[in-house]
Design a protein that fits this description.
By secondary structure, the protein is mainly alpha-helical. The protein has 14 helices and three strands.
């Protein structure tokens, strides 16, 4: 019964951004309420049917109406109990209304966030006392992620980054002069992290590091960068978090042989963290199987699955070939 209900509800809630794992967890958590609702419905129907033989003529319709009303009230009571029980954290904002937070609390929270960020950064090496950089100096910022930084993870680790300050903006705010020619090259190569903006879904995670291949770093660009500054900042980033564990072997991902269960669950066949991403992975693996024999460095699962154009796909292929080679 519960497995059937999970199978019915999962496609519905997946479209709303809820993982299959969460659907299964909530159904199991509410199993008592579900069986109680089922028992009430069965009892109400049984009374309505039995009224044909047990109730006197002229009162049967009354018995049936009372049984139906009692059933509706019983189901409503169980749903209410569930809302104030296992579902309370989910429906509390609706039941209690939205709370307001003072501007002072918001400001204090942002101060704490900045402090945590500062304390969480680790300086591994500072050769020749290069840091701190002199304010007002010129910087070459390399790395495509400098134009598309990662502000949060996935699932419960996600956050609203609409007002977050990016790496390039923060450096300029700190008084540094940046080489915009490099930035323009990155944004022209791919303006967004989701492969040109063709994929915006919790069913897909872009694990790639979509760095332009070596041919994009032309002699002219590098000569201009050397003239601009002898100091460089390199930025690398990729997304990961709840339900979207990062693979440790990107080469296996590219070739469609990656199995996250082997990495994080010792090959446990019951590992289900990727349930919400299963259809996307199945599509990528099928694509890899079709193209495996045609490419020296494997297939292009990210670009093709995302629906990117041929030009973008070729750039992704060259980037991966460069990385693998």
């Amino acid at each position: 019964m519960l497995d059937w209900l999970v199978g019915v509800l999962t496609p519905i809630f997946e479209g709303m951004g809820v993982s299959a794992t969460d659907v299964q967890t909530y159904v199991e958590m509410m199993s008592g309420h579900i069986y109680a609702i089922l028992a009430i419905i069965v009892a109400a129907i049984a009374v309505m049917i039995a009224a044909h033989w047990l109730a006197k003529k002229g009162t049967r319709h009354v018995v049936r109406w009372v049984a139906g009303l009692a059933g509706v009230l019983g189901v409503a009571g169980v749903i209410t109990a569930a809302m104030y029980g296992p579902l309370y954290n989910n429906v509390a904002p609706i039941i209690n209304g939205a709370a307001s937070v003072s501007e002072e609390s918001v400001a204090a929270s942002k101060d704490v966030i900045r402090q945590i960020g500062d304390e969480g950064m680790v300086l591994l090496m500072n050769d020749d006392n290069l840091l701190p950089l002199e304010e007002g100096s010129n910087l070459n910022v390399f790395g495509w992620a400098s134009t598309n930084p990662i502000f949060g993870g996935t699932g419960s680790g996600s956050s609203d980054s609409s007002d977050a300050v990016g790496i390039l903006d923060s450096l300029e705010m700190a008084g540094f002069n940046l080489n915009t020619e490099i930035t323009d090259m990155y944004t022209a190569y791919s303006p967004t992290r989701n492969l040109g903006g063709n994929v915006v879904s919790v069913m897909y995670t872009d694990w790639s590091l979509p760095e332009p291949p070596a041919e994009y770093y032309t002699d002219e660009l590098m000569a201009n960068a050397e003239s601009f500054s002898d100091t460089a900042v390199i930025v690398l980033a990729r997304s990961g978090g709840e339900g979207q564990d990062l693979p440790r072997d990107m080469n296996a991902v590219i070739h469609g042989t990656n199995n996250i269960a082997d990495e994080v669950a010792n090959g446990n066949e019951g590992y289900n963290c990727f349930a919400c991403n299963s259809r996307a992975r199945a599509g990528l693996r099928a694509l890899c199987s079709e193209q495996q024999g045609d490419r020296t460095h494997g297939c292009r699962p990210f670009a093709a699955a995302a629906g990117g154009g041929d030009d973008h796909a070729r750039r992704q292929d060259r980037a991966r070939a460069h990385a693998v080679g």
